[in-house]
TrEMBL record:
Keywords: Transferase. One of its GO terms (molecular function) is UDP-glycosyltransferase activity. Pfam families: UDPGT. CDD domains: GT1_Gtf-like. It comes from the Bacteria. This is Glycosyltransferase, MGT family. One of its GO terms (biological process) is antibiotic biosynthetic process.
Length: 438
């Protein structure tokens, strides 16, 4: 049996997909990962075959820097970072408008490249990132059965009257004006319609007889798997696609460097793990405020600085590196300070670690709202929170440990990778049987 995994060339997307694929690897099956060259080393580290398949202009092997992006993408990234300083609505508006150019990059050419990879690999199963739109366009056009993995908040696949890019929820600390929200909603609807027209134009070239989409953002595969804990999902959202399942998380096993292992083994003082992921670590101003708050907390700190520069001094007892093995540190952390990216949220909860969420963009607002609503942490506006606010919020987050630990016990009981393997095998086998009968 051969599994084909299709991922954008971003570490934050590839890592959970590759983690799911380790279940196939453990079963002795062949795994091929189709992605770009920037993450090829990560693919090799998992022991998988790599098929070169760029799906967009940009890439991110772990920590993203604007100066390392191709012309045009560098300015877009700088524009995004600048928008995060202006707040939730401005950031979401910038991201919505950017989707006019970045979600369907050379769609017909990339779709044809995807179908060529499928022809070469001849997989028995295909797992694709939901946000790899040109890849899913190809598979839908070619009527190729596949499993669609939603790696972000579940609202990344809109249901009911939801509009892609418009948050389904946000934390209490954010108080946008109704007029701003109305303007954002209009932009998101306009971009949705433009995106759908572009999708349908490409689909008509690839498969002239295929049915056009009414909202391309709601298109999905034969089986939808949410890399998200069911305990955090808002049950008031509209009916989810059938069939679907919540995987909980896709927590990878990481190699722990000797210096990090030594730090973990010395001292029994509780510690906070701090990371803003591969993108938002550029917000050194917010990281600096977090540092000032935690210096007075009495906690040790493991801090992943990413691309941040000119941070204030820290105690000698802290562990500070540009990159840290996140899952290994979360296994022993008492609290996590995070941007509320989906990987960070699901990995922290799997370890039973409560969170202070400081969301900046995309679905981080909905993720932070879920943290707040379910009582597994606290959320603040990163542009408004002072060191005093953060210090107090960390203490409140520590009190959420019992709720986080209860969810963690559930998630560890059935690892997402094992569930994905079973569900994918069973469902696509049924799809194949139906195809043979017809």
């Amino acid at each position: 049996m051969t599994l084909l995994v299709i991922s954008p060339d971003y570490a934050s997307h590839l890592l959970p997909l590759a983690t799911l694929a380790t279940a196939w690897q453990r079963a002795g099956e062949r795994v091929v990962v189709a992605t770009g060259s920037a993450t090829a080393a990560l693919v090799a580290g998992f022991g998988f075959e790599h098929s070169d398949l760029p799906l967009g202009r940009g890439s991110n092997p772990g920590v993203i820097r604007a100066e390392q992006q191709p012309a045009g993408e560098d300015d877009a990234l700088r524009g995004f970072f600048a928008a995060t300083y202006r707040g939730m609505v401005e950031t979401l508006r910038f991201q919505a408008e950017a989707r006019r150019n970045d979600l369907l990059w050379e769609p017909v050419d990339r779709a044809q490249a995807v179908l060529k990879v499928v022809e070469q690999v001849r997989p028995d199963r295909i797992v694709v990132d939901h946000l790899a739109f040109s890849a899913r366009l190809a598979l839908i056009a070619g009527a190729v059965p596949h499993v669609d993995v939603v790696l972000g908040h579940p609202s990344a696949l809109p249901v009911g009257d939801e509009v892609y890019g418009y948050p389904t929820a946000w934390p209490a600390a954010f108080r946008p004006a109704e007029s701003e929200l109305a303007a954002l909603h209009l932009v998101c609807r306009t971009v949705r319609d433009e995106f759908t027209a572009e999708w349908n134009a490409a689909l008509h070239i690839l498969a002239p007889n295929a049915a056009a989409a009414t909202d391309a953002f709601t298109e999905h595969g034969d089986l939808v798997l949410y890399n998200y804990p069911a305990a955090l999902h808002d049950l008031t959202r509209g009916p989810l696609p059938a069939p679907h399942a919540f995987l909980g998380s896709a927590v990878r096993t990481e190699t722990v460097p000797a210096d990090v292992r030594s730090w973990l083994e010395t001292g029994d003082q509780p510690f906070a793990y701090v990371s803003f992921g591969s993108f938002l670590s550029t917000r050194a101003d917010v990281l600096s405020t977090v540092i000032r708050a935690l210096r007075r907390s009495g906690l040790r700190v493991a801090l992943a600085t990413g691309a941040a520069q000119d941070l204030p001094p820290v105690p000698d007892t802290w562990l500070v590196r540009p990159y840290l093995p996140q899952t290994a540190l979360l296994d022993q952390a008492s609290v996590a300070v995070t941007h509320a990216g989906n990987n960070s949220v699901t990995e922290a909860l799997t370890a039973g670690v409560p969170m202070l969420a400081l969301p900046f963009s995309t679905d981080q607002f909905a993720g932070a709202a879920a943290i707040e609503t379910t009582g597994v942490g606290v959320a603040l506006d990163p542009n408004a929170a002072t060191a005093d606010d953060i210090a107090a919020a960390v203490q409140r987050a520590l009190e959420c440990a019992p709720a986080a630990q209860a969810i963690g016990e559930q998630l560890r009981r059935t690892p997402g990778r094992d569930l994905a393997h079973t569900l994918t095998h069973d469902h696509l086998s049924k799809v194949a049987e139906r195809g043979q009968r017809s």
